Amino acid sequence: MSRSTDLIHHPYQPPAEFEAPQVGVFKASTVIFPNVAAMRTREWLDKSAYTYGLHGTPTTFTLEERLATLEGGTHCILTPSGLAAIAHVDFALLQSGDEVLIPDNAYGPNKALAEGELARFGITHALYNPMDAQDLAARITERTRLVWLEAAGSVTMEFPDLPALVRVCCERGVLCALDNTWGAGLAFNAFDLEPGQGSAPLGVDLTIHALTKYPSGGGDVLMGSIVTRSDDLARTLKLSHMRLGTGVGANDAEAVLRALPSLPLRYQAQDQAARRLAAWCALQAPFTQVLHPAWTDAPGHAHWKNLCVTAEVPQGLAAGIFSVVMDERFSSAQVDGFCDALKLFKIGYSWGGPMSLVMPYNLRSSRAMPTPHLKPGRVVRFCIGLEDVDDLQNDIAQALQHLK
Ligand SMILES: *Cc1c(COP(=O)(O)O)cnc(C)c1O
């Protein structure tokens, strides 16, 4: 054999027994079968074997299993981003003539996807008020196939009565999918919201999670997941996933696997830091309202308490993220100036990483329904990283001076 062939078909095989705290980075498009019979019979759907990189490797199977456990489900599918997970659910479960319902305070691109892409395939969407289960019930028609849920809502952090919304979906026989990025599988169990009528607890049909946020923890990975307890849904979603070809890279999967063990510690630390800062912000005159579901006067606080406060965690759990409403006397330019004056808080999208972030929002362009529970004024969202809390507080204090 020539050297070039030997380099590819080398006889050396490393010993099989290897165990380390982390699963290896298995990178493959091609998976090699020992013979044709194996190629014909191997099954990737149930994770009993490997067939092609896109269908799973030891790295991605391991990550999927851990994420399913994290969120209280039994099946998990990885997608190249959180938004891709939302898109995948829509494309796998909806067809022409169907309608999907989306909460008015949903993650913006979820609505944009419905307006821009689903509409072209004859799938319509409607918005509902997530703080009113009766509003949801009234909007469900015989064309409604899927209801999206989000807790807490994007930017304005309203916490819906999730059990009530899920009950409406169950009663009407409509699938419900929760964007579980905020709760990260830690703040509450989406598949076990309360004891059910029969043996099964009341829960959502599936969750999506932007692993980009807390599970990655580094602000350097884009990935998403879909988790369900339903064997039927998992099969539909997996087959569609295979046909659409949206897999994830092994290095990114490994990065999330590496960060996963510290997820509960980081989530709690960022939660505590956010609450300390939110409490301080509530005392600063330029901020007329603090939007954080653990706040007693925040919209949906009782619902948050009902779901996220338990005997084991009496202080409850929440993501390390909150918004403030700026006094309406401040112009858009002044609010932008305040954000620009922050030094530790960087201006950028996403959250869950080590660096604190800030972003001003104009709700008038992103909410279709009235928001009487919000004070007038511009909204600024803070995503708390892992910096020292006093340093972050001093940073906001110095930036507030620029408003004067
Ligand atoms: C970030 C985010 C997404 C999308 O995740 P990407 O990985 O950035 O596509 C979806 N939902 C929520 C609530 C998010 O915060």
3D structure, described in words:
With 404 residues, this protein is of the alpha/beta class. It has 2 domains: 242 residues, Aspartate Aminotransferase, domain 2; 141 residues, Aspartate Aminotransferase, domain 1 (Alpha-Beta Complex), CATH 3.90.1150. 34% of the residues lie in helices and 15% in strands. The strands form 2 sheets. It has a 7-stranded mixed β-sheet, sandwiched between helices. Strand 2, helix 5 and strand 3 form a beta-alpha-beta unit. Helix 3 crosses helix 9 and helix 6 runs parallel beside helix 7. The model has no long low-confidence stretch (mean pLDDT 96). The site of pyridoxal-5'-phosphate has 13 residues, from helix 4.
SSE inventory with pairings:
Elements: H1 3-8, H2 36-41, H3 58-71, E1 75-79, H4 82-93, E2 99-103, H5 108-116, E3 124-128, H6 133-139, E4 144-150, H7 162-172, E5 175-179, E6 206-210, E7 224-228, H8 231-244, H9 250-259, H10 263-281, E8 287-291, H11 301-308, E9 321-326, H12 332-341, E10 346-347, E11 357-361, E12 379-383, H13 389-401
Parallel strand pairs: 2-3, 2-4, 4-5, 5-6, 10-11
Antiparallel strand pairs: 1-7, 6-7, 8-9, 9-12, 11-12
Residues 81-83, 107, 154, 179, 181, 210, 212-213, 222, 224, 350 line the site of pyridoxal-5'-phosphate (PLP).
Helix content: 25-40%
| Annotated CATH architecture of the largest domain | 3-Layer(aba) Sandwich
Main beta sheet, described?
A: 7 strands, mixed
Q: Provide mean pLDDT, rounded.
A: 96
CATH class of the largest domain: Alpha Beta
Low-confidence stretches: none
- Please state the overall shape, judged from the principal axes of the Cα atoms: globular
Strand content: 5-15%
The number of domains is 2
Radius of gyration over all CA atoms, rounded: 23 Å
Order of helices and strands: HHHEHEHEHEHEEEHHHEHEHEEEH
Kindly report the CATH topology of the largest domain. Answer: Aspartate Aminotransferase, domain 2
Count of discrete alpha- or pi-helical segments spanning 4 or more residues: 13
Distance between the termini: 79 Å
Number of strands: 12
How are the strands of the largest sheet arranged?
1-7-6-5-4-2-3
Briefly note the structural class of the backbone.
alpha/beta
